[in-house]
Write a structure and sequence with these properties.
Distance between the termini: 23 Å
Helix content: 25-40%
Strand content: 15-25%
Strand order of the largest sheet: 3-2-1-4-7
Largest sheet: 5 strands, parallel
Shape: globular
Number of helices: 8
């Protein structure tokens, strides 16, 4: 990775974005660290402080734009409304495309940065036949985050640099330690960034009254086969996902019912999909 010019790097205060800053500097970029303030809480303050400490160590500029309103509108409100509708939201994927990247692009434009960067473990490539940009898996399959960037637009991908796409987490830790970065041993955070612990109290406070109810799970063709508490995150239920033959689901939210049927017997002629991004 050899480059030049100014680049805006999204920094969360973790080791990945810290090492990304160092790698971008090594490649020849003039790096500006950007920590967007999406929530007004202690965790945000800690993240901003850690990112600022790294930028001070590396001798680069650090910006902390206020983005609370955007985050509420683009991430939190859709998350709540999806659960209220009986769906299973994936807030982080939508956040990257509709909140984090637009905020990073806006700051980059204000500061005269040609490119943007993040510490995601994924790669960007350009197809030779169509010229379109695509998101590719990271070389480290255990850390691959290409799914998190799956909704990015062509305009966003065209400007995005991902320094960690060909690295392992262990290699990133080694670089951080060698550089003496203050976040070299910082633990990873995998949780939903705007909910601490159980999501149901959060939903109740937002007016989702049925998040604690028991949802009946019913076999198509008759016979109840148990109940599930709260909303039903289909992609997280390993006991169903590993069934052979595979099963499909039908959610009747008005009756709080979830129907389960063998996929081989569905005889479905079509399926309905939305928020598809072809890259």
């Amino acid at each position: 990775m050899n480059a030049s010019g100014r680049i805006a790097l999204g920094m969360s205060g973790g080791v990945d974005s810290a090492v990304s800053a160092a790698l971008l500097m090594r490649a020849g970029y003039e790096v500006v660290g950007v920590t967007c303030r999406f929530r007004d809480n202690a965790a945000t303050e800690r993240a901003a402080a850690d990112a600022a400490a790294v930028c001070s160590q590396l001798g680069i500029r650090h910006e902390t734009p206020e983005c609370v309103g955007e985050f509420e509108r683009c991430v939190v409100e859709p998350f709540v409304s999806s659960y209220a509708a009986g769906l299973t939201p994936s807030p982080c994927v939508g956040c990257n495309a509709r909140c984090k990247m637009p905020a990073l692009v806006r700051v980059a434009d204000e500061l005269g940065c040609d490119r943007i960067a993040t510490g995601h473990y994924a790669r960007i490539a350009r197809l030779s036949d169509s010229g379109r940009f695509v998101v590719k898996r990271a070389l480290d399959a255990r850390k691959d985050q290409s799914y998190m960037l799956s909704l990015l637009s062509q305009e966003q991908l065209a400007r995005l640099v991902l320094p960690l796409g060909a690295m392992t987490k262990a290699e990133v830790r080694v670089i951080a330690a060698d550089l003496g970065l203050v976040v070299a041993e910082k633990a990873e955070s995998q949780d939903n960034c705007f909910i601490e612990g159980d999501y149901r109290p959060f939903l109740r406070a937002r007016g989702v009254a049925r998040c604690d109810e028991k949802r009946k799970r019913t076999r198509a063709g008759g016979g109840r086969c148990g109940k599930l508490a709260g909303s039903f995150p289909i992609h997280n239920v390993s006991s169903f996902r590993r069934r052979r033959p595979p099963v499909c689901f039908a959610l009747i939210k008005q009756q709080f019912l979830l129907f389960v049927k063998c996929l081989l017997n569905c005889r479905a002629r079509y399926c309905r999909m939305r928020q598809i991004r072809y890259t």
